[in-house]
Amino acid sequence: MKYASVLITGASSGIGQGLALMLARPGRRLLLGGRNTPRLEETARQCIARGADARIQATDVTNQAAMTDWVSSAGPLNLVLACAGITGGTRLTEQPDPAPYEPDTQIRRIFETDLTGVLNTVLPALALMRGQPRSVEGIRGRICAIASVAGFVSFPGTPAYSAAKAAVDRFMVASGANARREGIMLSSVVCGFVDTPMVARNRFAMPGLTDTHSACRRILRGVGRNERRIIFPRWLVAGSRFMDLLPIRLAEAYYTRQPAAAPDGMPAADLS
Fold first, then answer.
1. 3-state helix vs strand vs coil in the chain, percent to 5
2. How does 126-137 read in b/e, with b if 16+ C-beta sit within 10 Å?
3. Would you state the pLDDT for residue 1?
4. Where is the Ketoreductase domain (predicted)?
5. What pLDDT digit, counting tens, does each position of 62-91 carry?
6. Could you tell me how far CA 83 lies from the centroid of its own chain?
7. CA–CA–CA angle 162, 165, 170 (5° rounding)
8. Active site residue 161
9. In angstroms, rounded to a whole number, what is the distance separating the alpha carbons of residues 34 and 236?
10. Which end of the chain has the lower number of beta carbons within 10 A, N or C?
């Protein structure tokens, strides 16, 4: 893939870091964003060792002004990968009738990072790419955002995460039709569990757990093929789609019995 210039958010760890390392090669400019400066610097160091021109931007995707300034001044860009994201599970109330709940601060932070943070990346990238010339293939640029199989279900264990990822997927897929006419290819990554630090503290078995290298390879293959929705593992996504067709009470009866839905089954979201 001939991506001379690539911008990646969430590049300090997980999928974002994996994509940065996989894309690092001589002649390629990598613009790496993230909140953790030491980890971001380490990603850049490894990319430079592979021959890439890697530059870091320590910023939070929830900061609209900072993201707009960074993305708008980063051009030209061939590929933008919106990978920054957080997750978190429910807690148990201490009321007379204990029940799982998701703290307000966590709900807001997940929406701000996983949804608004994607918009803060994608919208200025779209504006930038509209002013770029088309390639011989008629393409001005590609933008890919990480959604999740959780966005295909109403999972009681991660309500905010499921809702935020559902919105990301629908926005990227729905917007892709018009963007394609402008020569900008949009992709949504609907993946299951990927073996990253974000899921390392989960206290339950994770079906279909995919190693980061395989996940990144699948994402880049899908982007290169202009896939609007990049799906893996397919069986997990298909099963999730089926569950979402069931009556709500029936689906909930199944989900609430799963270890993943248990209070404290997932760590609290990173609110720093």
1. 45, 15, 40
2. bebbeebeeeee
3. 59
4. 4-197
5. 999 999 999 999 989 999 999 999 988 888
6. 4
7. 120
8. yes
9. 29
10. C
